[in-house]
Design goal:
202 residues, alpha+beta, Elongation Factor Tu (Ef-tu), domain 3, six-stranded antiparallel β-sheet, three-stranded antiparallel β-sheet, 4 helices
Length: 202
């Protein structure tokens, strides 16, 4: 129904199609569910009445949770300058180029890439604790209860829907999958690690 009103939409992640209804970009997904970013001018919006009944607009929290399940990190003020691109998997989702451009820290980033020395990665998990819902979690430490001395990582981003909080967290590869991961303290709420739609192991 949506394509009948909007036109043939892209399928491959990040693929873009310009249509009379606007620009559509296929968003990555952790499952077979299709989703798109739709960019339209005021004029296109005024002319898109036929799309109203076909659009399945998603609440912001659900969209963010889908981003997290797809392994797409969003860096906020709380996590700015905390991670290098590889530890939040930007190299695995084509979010950083090693052949062009200049940016602060480029030498460290490139060295880690070409030497294959990345020992930390971003993983996905869920927290089934209603008390955590609504809390600002980005930047909060992650602990491994089997080695409680020091934090093993940090939360990159989080989104809560229907009593479950989805999180992307940066941690050591050694803590996955055997670690007993906890939020904020070694005895904090448990983070149940789950698979990303791409491999994070070397």
């Amino acid at each position: 129904a949506l394509e009948a009103a909007a036109g043939a939409l892209p399928r491959a992640p990040w693929q873009r199609v310009d249509l009379p209804s606007g620009t559509w970009i296929a968003a990555p997904s952790a499952n077979a569910h299709l989703r798109w970013w739709w960019i339209a001018s005021d004029e296109q919006l005024d002319q898109s009445a036929a799309l109203a009944g076909a659009l399945g607009l998603t609440p912001a929290a659900q969209w963010r949770a889908a981003d997290l399940a797809a392994g797409i990190p969003w860096i906020t003020a709380a996590t700015q300058d905390v991670f290098i691109p590889q530890t939040v998997n930007l190299d695995l989702i084509q979010g950083v180029s090693f052949t062009k451009g200049c940016y602060p820290g480029q030498e460290v980033v490139a060295r880690s890439h070409y030497r294959g020395t990345v020992k930390r990665r971003m993983a996905y998990g869920t927290i089934a604790d209603a008390a955590v819902q609504g809390q600002a979690l980005a930047g909060v430490d992650v602990y491994d209860a089997t080695q409680p001395g020091e934090p093993t990582g940090r939360i990159v981003d989080a989104a809560g829907t229907q009593g479950v909080v989805s999180v992307l967290f940066e941690t050591t590869l050694a803590a996955l999958p055997e670690g007993d991961l906890r939020l904020g303290a070694a005895d904090g709420p448990r983070i149940a690690a789950a698979a990303l739609p791409y491999s994070i192991t070397p």
